[in-house]
From TrEMBL, chains A, B:
Cofactor(s) required, per the database record: Ca(2+)
Stated name of the protein: Glycoside hydrolase family 92 protein
Gene Ontology biological-process annotations: carbohydrate metabolic process; glycoprotein catabolic process
Quaternary structure, from the entry: Monomer.
A Pfam family: Glyco_hydro_92N
Gene Ontology CC terms: cytosol
Glycosyl hydrolase family 92 N-terminal domain segment(s): 28-282
Length: 746, 746
């Protein structure tokens, strides 16, 4: 029923002339990668860090779908194996693990008006996507759909058959679990409104509004609203013919509010008639949504906007040029880069306005971007380090954003979503992100304010510590004891150790020696958890004894596990990146460490789908003579888990973190210690990689990496850094920037 | 459990000092009259023709209530026999037969916050009401409640016990069957929003928004929203703890929209602490609701506003002064006057803005009042004639409003409600209302536009005739045949005859002789329905034969009846007020007419609760020597059906029509032919009645009526009109205004 056509066919379909003899990087991007196997990416039209995304929504309304958003824990508007399309959702998340966003559902139908998505959805064919563009053909209606986007405005074009046709905007459904919307007709061709979003990861108070203005290019013959009428009881029910049904409002033109409301536009279309819909959004106000729409799209055709979107993507992708490697490797690489550049995304309107973090004020970001969607427990591991290297001006604005959040809300972000602290996952991950940036020369922010913020979460005791809720135990005992069966106590503490290590480095840099000493000492508390008996970390009880019974395998496949969050003791036991030497000593020396780490892989305890053990393969390179294991494991993992297919990401992309792992692994640089400006090196996938640098931050304009394994010589024999042989497989950011050139020999 | 205390006790309760040695007319008003026995009045605080009313809402939430709004066809926010109070509803209808309005439910509670009205409601005691004021004590919470009002703003004061206390605004429930509301926190002490109202008499498209601004006098300790979460299914349901419950939003402060939403304000009150709530409304916008609130209440205390409300009522009631009569008679009289002055009510804001009739525009009423709530099938029989006599400047604005509705919408109103034509009941009742006013000298409106409007509904053929949907039959046959079992065909036609008689008179007055001839001929078509066999009117089929079988008693007690709406053939057969002479001839002469009419009363076929036969008692006075029957029947009906008790109105007050029947009957003037400026006279209840007239319209400043029956002399022997003996018991408006004085002798 459904067939994804190649880019070539999409071009043949004649929508835009994308003819170029020259290589275009956007052509390597495969937007369907990660759109099944719980990768939770989507093939929608989006710009780098764009507020808007226009995504085919196919996760509700039909039992023929393999996955239904309400039938299980479900977090993406699209799955490639589903077949029932119910419209385009506007503003979506890519690579998250909880249901959220994915609303303002825009559908086109032909024939008799039906506003029930269980009826009006359609299977589709001729599906294709390129950066900034998506298209399909609705088989039920023979309607051709296309979507493109600007930063804050979605543009959708429908090509209709002859006859009665409809454009529907459904505000009652969406991926989000929040309900409630208001809409208002502005004119024959414009409606505006607001919808509540939120409860990310079922946090009931993390809710926020989205505002929109929607314009259709052609005035309809008729239009109206609908609202599902909650079922009445008793005699009342007998008299109301709309009871328990979708009521159509054909004459009413003012505000309509409700749990399940929508608007329809009805046309008498000619064969091939095109109607375009533009949806501007804002998180500040309806007026700003309108201004965003106007300033971003006025005077521009669908083709103009699509072309501009492609140019923006091309420019962003071109920050890294690769040579050598197969077509598939290039596709994997640029697709990973594409996925890495989606979040965090901008929050401010064209006029700079954005909603205060956890407050009611409207603030202004001035000349800077205000970012949102900080899934920091994920992205602090590699995404921000990558951005600091390749897009430092963006990372700079993200750091500014984080410090501003502290000023607005009193806390640095943990998992921030459109001005809400969702408190998802654990730890204090903004600390390593900011410290890492600082050490890489990204210092155009209020450094002392940032330190103040970090110091607050590291030292505040009692229930008032939003970021470290178990700080009393942590400070008193040096670890977090298990107080409730699934309180993830060890995972919490491990995150604090990493953060405190970064904070100690930062304190040192700011001349705060005693603070530095204190935090460094705290960062070593992980030793409390080390169990000689198992050779792993192991939960501890408040009385200081280990949890018993204990099974280090428990927690595989996301099963609940005392002390550990989303993983087993194996997935966490090497997660002490800042003190590998100390952990090695605990474990009985290098060989025991290597054996234990290798056995994680050999015995299938490594989880390629989640973050805690994501840097494990790189730990071998701390030990002379064992670096080949890093190269072997990384190559194997890349080859096994990343592909150009819809299941080509190993599990949830985690707002680009999984993609970024592949990306940096393919370049051959990995930042395995969050907050510490160092990389572990591995054999790159390409003959030559040229990364454009920003002289303002990096002191030079490019970094060149050369030399991939050839033939039987799989492992690095020699590394030449800036013309000098490097005595290690680890390198500091400063060394790298000074050198500007790495050469690998095999 | 519940006890209504007298005014004296209310005064003793010490809330306001209402001490006066002088007689006050407001003290005669008994706002509880008509609040049970389906009278559908209410004891809420309201001004004459006020947009706002603040009404104790006691028709939902408890099985201990005798009547539940959803368990049956129910049309009033309050019933005196109910016991469970769930708050004050803002903006209500008085005396209507369909569920509508009665929303913006404001409640006060103490103790733990609970936002479910099934839990938070309370029984009450110490209930009392005077014009512009209502009070009770909530037994569950020991909260003392008081409400007063301006034209567009409700003011409620709660006196709390010590402890945790709450003010709740429920936008999810109401008497209206429409749902959907949006609210937004403006500040600690102010919220604003809009709620959808409508579907009066289950007309699905007759919907419209109300806008509000609500201010509390004291900033709360905490506040938030609630929204009922529609039940989820499957796995989704397991994760959302608010699934199928009222979710509290404690941190969210922006727009909240939904089917069932509300807001709470939480306080830590001292014993006896008073908190006041002011609710401004508008049918135009939130901004106008705020302006209404500010301009009407700024700088005024609760006591000021209550006092002003009382003064306004006192001044209005004082347009008619009565002497003699018992206390009970005075109470019945002024209560009837009170109920007659509630609808129609003003629609425009303080700045003159109002919503276009059946359109999206906002218009301005300038220096005039724009009225709404025209239940014309009821009120065209006496309310507008009464207003023309006693409050002609208001009737003048109502006529202007009706003509403006034609200009805005293309049709005169039938049953207009807040800018919507609900098309409830039948006929073309605006015609007699406007014509009657015209003939009484109320001519400051676009007379030719009015005639154009009337001519349109009287002559338009086909489906496009909104007011006379069966005009094709009516014009072709001279009557409306029965085409569907319960199509009320005879009732429709009878209304058209009355309207066409009025229209003929109007055409004559405007010099349109041929139109006049045509409409006069049409007005006599009732003869088609006369059945010699039964001596009644009887439905006719399209082929010209009478409906058979036929039972002239069918239709009693609102049972369905072919051809007749809400009544039997008996209730309609004398409803040819404009041609009593012709009907008499049809019936075989005076004696047969008198016998038949008398038997309606004697055999219990007269329905004192509904309009079609409401003027029957007055028809005797067309016949010399039979006038005593009018006096006898009117006296008996007044005595039997009107009292000072809650069941003191015989059935639905029909926006004052029933009350107005009593009122005019007690004065001794009744306008039994709608559209014809004449009155039938009967013995007044009082020794002396002085009605203030408006010299601008009436040429004099008062009308005096003297002489009530004394002792055994029950029936009028002689009528002296302006010093001259009157040879009839009927009088024209012109005669009456010229004379200014009627004296009755017995």
């Amino acid at each position: 029923m459904k067939r994804r056509v190649g880019l070539f066919l999409a071009v043949v379909l004649g929508l835009t002339m994308v003819a170029s003899a020259q290589e275009r990087l956007v052509d390597y991007v495969q937007p369907f990668v990660g759109t099944t196997n719980f990768g939770t990416t989507n093939p929608g039209a989006v710009l780098p860090h764009g507020m808007m995304s226009v995504v085919p929504f196919n996760v509700m309304g039909s039992e023929e779908n393999r996955f239904d958003k309400d039938a299980r824990w479900w977090s993406t508007p699209y799955d490639h194996t589903n077949t029932y399309f119910t419209g385009f959702s506007h503003v979506n998340l890519s690579g998250v693990g909880c249901p959220e966003m994915g609303s303002l559902l825009l559908m086109a139908t032909s024939g008799k008006l039906d506003v029930d998505y269980r009826n009006y959805g359609s299977t589709y064919t001729d599906e294709a996507a390129t950066p900034g563009y998506y298209t399909n053909r609705l088989t039920k209606y023979n309607i051709f759909t296309e979507a493109t986007t600007t930063l804050r405005t979605g543009i959708t074009r429908f090509t209709f058959p002859k006859g009665e046709s409809h454009i529907l905007l459904n505000l009652g459904e969406g991926l989000t679990n929040e309900t409630g919307a208001m809409l208002r007709r502005v004119s024959d061709t414009e409606i505006e409104g607001t919808k509540l979003l939120g409860t990310f990861c079922y946090n009931p108070q993390a809710v926020f509004p989205i505002y929109f203005v929607m314009q259709v290019s052609t005035a309809p013959n008729s239009q109206g609203y609908w609202k599902y009428q909650r079922p009445m009881k008793g005699v009342e029910a007998e008299w109301d013919k709309d009871n328990g049904q979708y009521k159509l409002y054909t004459k009413y033109t003012k505000e309509l509010a409700g749990d399940d409301v929508g608007a329809f536009f009805t046309y008498d279309t000619e064969e091939g008639e095109q109607i375009e819909v533009r949806m501007g959004v804002s998180f500040v106000s309806i007026e700003n949504a309108r201004e965003n729409l106007q300033r971003e799209t006025e005077g521009q055709s669908f083709a103009d906007i699509r072309k501009r979107a492609e140019e923006i993507w091309e420019a962003d992708l071109a920050r890294i040029q690769v040579e050598g490697g197969t077509l598939e490797q290039k596709q994997i690489f640029y697709t990973a880069l594409y996925h890495t550049l989606i979040h965090p995304n901008i929050l401010q309107d064209v006029n700079g306005a954005y909603p205060q973090m956890e407050g009611g004020k409207i603030l202004n970001s001035g000349v800077h971007n205000r970012y949102t969607v900080f899934s920091l427990w994920d992205t602090y591991r590699n995404v921000h380090q990558f951005l600091s290297l390749v897009y430092p001006e963006r990372q700079m604005d993200m750091v500014r954003t984080m410090v501003a959040m502290y000023e607005e809300h009193g806390w640095l972000p943990k998992w921030e979503l459109y001005g809400r602290e969702t408190l998802t996952m654990e730890g204090d991950p903004a600390i390593p992100v900011i410290v890492d940036s600082y050490f890489k020369g990204l210092r155009d922010f209020d450094v002392h304010k940032a330190y103040e913020a970090m110091y607050k979460s590291a030292t505040t005791v009692g229930k008032d510590n939003l970021l470290r809720p178990d700080n009393d135990d942590y400070l008193a005992l040096g670890y977090v004891p298990l107080r409730e069966k699934y309180d993830n106590s060890v995972s919490h503490a491990l995150e604090y150790y990493v953060a405190d290590n970064a904070l100690a480095l930062f304190a040192d840099a700011l001349g705060k020696k005693s603070d530095a000493k204190r935090f460094r000492a705290q960062s070593l508390g992980y030793k409390n958890y080390y169990s000689k008996e198992y050779g792993t970390l192991r939960p501890k009880l408040p009385n200081g004894t280990f949890l018993a019974p204990f099974n280090p395998k428990q927690g595989e496949n996301f099963e609940p596990n005392p002390g550990f969050h989303e993983g087993s003791a194996y997935n966490y036991s090497f997660f002490v990146p800042h003190d590998i030497a100390g952990l090695t000593k605990l474990m009985g020396g290098k060989q025991k460490f290597i054996n234990a780490l290798q056995s994680i892989f050999d015995k299938g305890h490594y989880d390629p789908t989640n973050e805690p053990n994501i840097a494990y393969p790189y730990l071998f390179s701390y030990f002379r003579g064992e670096e080949w294991r890093t190269q072997k494991m990384v190559t194997e993992l890349l080859s096994k888990h990343f592909s150009t297919q819809p299941d080509g990401i190993p599990g949830n992309d985690d707002t680009g973190t999984m993609s970024c792992w592949a990306l940096m692994s393919m370049i051959g640089l990995y930042p395995d210690v969050p907050g510490v400006p160092e990389y572990t090196l591995t054999a790159p996938t390409f003959d030559r990689v040229v990364i454009k640098l920003n002289p303002k931050y990096h002191g030079r304009d490019q970094l060149v990496i050369e030399g991939k394994p050839i033939g039987d010589n799989q492992y690095i024999k020699e590394i030449i850094l800036g013309g000098k042989k490097l005595n290690s497989h680890r390198v500091t950011h400063e060394q790298l920037m000074k050198a500007g050139y790495i050469q690998y020999k095999y």
